[in-house]
Fold this sequence. Notes:
2 helices, alpha+beta
Amino acid sequence: MTSPDPQKLFWKIAEELYSDSSVKEGSMMGLKCLRVDGAFFASLDRKTQALIVKLPQDRIQSLLSNAVGEPFAPAGRVFK
């Protein structure tokens, strides 16, 4: 069985989120993303197709300490 295309899967899930009128498609640094009330909250990395999500700092630390995720750091600069 082949894995689904990450882009197709991401945007299919996004369609369900559009039922909330505050969720819209947007861009961040030229990258298509999802925004809620104008603020970025999810996208896919262009190169790796890894999921990028904005999370509370304590959740980020938990994921990093358990080696489940990694920081978003395009061009070597880690985003908050």
